[in-house]
Amino acid sequence: MTDLSTKAPVAPRHPHSFTRHGITVSDDYAWLKDARWQEVLHDPSLLDADIRAYLEAENAYAESVLGHTSPLQKKLVAEMRGRIKEDDSSVPSPDGPYAYFRKYREGGQHELFCRTPRNGGAETIGLDGDALARGHDYFKFGGSRHSHDHKRVAWSADTKGSEYFTIRVRDWDSGNDLDDVVEETDGGVVWSRDCTSFFYVKLDDNHRPMQVWRHKLGTRQADDALVYEEKDTGWFTHVHESTSGRFCVIAGGDHETSEQRLIDLDAPEAPPRLVAARENGVQYSIADRGDELFILTNADGAIDFKIVTAPLSAPERANWRDLIPHRAGIYVLDHDLYAGHLVRLERANALPSIVIRDLASGEEHAIAFDEGAYSLDAMGSYEFDTTNLRFAYSSMTTPSEVWDYDMVTRAKTLRKRQEIPSGHNPADYVTTRIMAKAEDGAEVPVSLLHRRDLRADGSAPLLLYGYGSYGHAMPASFSANRLSLVDRGFVYAIAHIRGGTDKGWGWYLDGKREKKTNSFDDFAACARALIAANYTSARRIVGHGGSAGGMLMGAVANRAGELFAGIVAEVPFVDVLNTMLDDTLPLTPPEWPEWGNPIESEKDFRTILSYSPYDNVAAKEYPAILAMAGLTDPRVTYWEPAKWFARLRATMTGGGPVLLRTNMGAGHGGASGRFNRLDEVAIVYAFALWAVGLADRSV
Catalytic amino acids? Predict the structure, then answer.
């Protein structure tokens, strides 16, 4: 039973308001934002004592309400862990004399980075994540990249959850790290061809990736050379190796515009060379082959993107020539290049396909699958001069499969099928898709998973997941964890709402800025369509979303809460207006193209104010809500859900309860370690079962 002896905390109101564009907004819980938040990211112990006391009181209250589900949580963790192959490993990826792979040891929380001789032989461990994590409450790998001569590996890790990654370099033979330590980076590394230096991106004091530096082995970080600095605080900058391995690509942009520069890795001290100057609203990304660039772009009104070519010697816009013309409704979301082939990943009507083009003949063919909803991804390769394409496939019923595909002979070889040690029979489950009609007539796809013996009589509980921002599509892929709900009678549904690119780039444009509310209305329309199709009933649905999907959850709670038994909002972006008004926060300037700039624009201010979950809490009944936050989260700061819950509890007239759980030692991704993360998933699932009255029956 729920422990009612612990009372819900009531946050004190500290009257505060501000006026912008002639509009006055009250924000009586602004005090929950620590004035020294940048310092708290680096050292959580510096958090203001009153704020810490409030967050801990919220944690205690959440525990008092959900504590009775502890046996259920333990059972859920055991189930989910039983579906994990504990000594799992990736398919080795060849590169020169070696093949590189990642694996876990039995009982291990963190990955091991390994290699074997290319044609077989004893494996060696370059990085042991379990050993590196010892002594840290939080540990997460950033990136790792072996040097071209295979003698060293550059690796990075975050030990606070704040996403400041420290880069080190390890000698493969000795297993020891060099003296080099490069701090406050985004974790990525690109090696020079001579393996004596590497490029990286440094984060500034506001956690923004604005500068590219070159580090020479054996020197101090203070002596590193600044290679490029982005002046626009609304742009983020990252580095990666080009498809051929010939260049370091400096890729910059926001959510609408991009620009790239190339550094010849044989001449690492040469200045970066601009590909095409930024033009507002024009995005592009490059792949290189010989003296030619293959460029994926939305230039010239290509809403769903096209592929053009340009000479490497003169890559500016004037020299771009269409290779794969724009086709409305067929979204080209990625491209990869090999010595003889161009590979592109396309999506039409929320279903992906891989298309392969022979660059000598121009002949094309596609790899596609027959299931009603599935996920497909090209996996890339260390090697450029190969005819082998590696891709991954899964569906909501089919565990992930890794295939090697010969692009010349078209022979397909299964390299790995995800093992479910506790057993899984795909025939016991059904994956299907329905279309929900939104208020304006738009057809919104919904992917469904349920047991084959489900009775569609409206009695089943249903978890409805959504995101709908930044053009991120939600793949209908396999998740072993979900089976713990589905096997207890839940229907699991994914709403492919506007704001994502599930139906092309236009689908994204119809769910951003002044059209943002389409995302919320689409989600509610999906819930109603599922009710109409007798998969579930009102107040038998649990909504689930994280980050910007957490904003979706907050908005839906305000606008259509009567449909839901419960709502789970993980690291929820719910204080949208205040965050978009604070240009010192890490993500604010780059987010203005997505949400609008309320500092400069009264229209944007009014638009955001009209839907921001925190600002639209009303005196009404709310469903039960669970929010999960991370104290050191630089993306969605801890005070957003804290303020939201303070206002909810002071304003709502009934329903609930509303439960806030802040991880005091983690950031945006929650707990580190593959098994520790299961503890948080189990809390979410236990809450979902509890919200629909099944918690006590599920132990």
Answer: 547, 633, 668
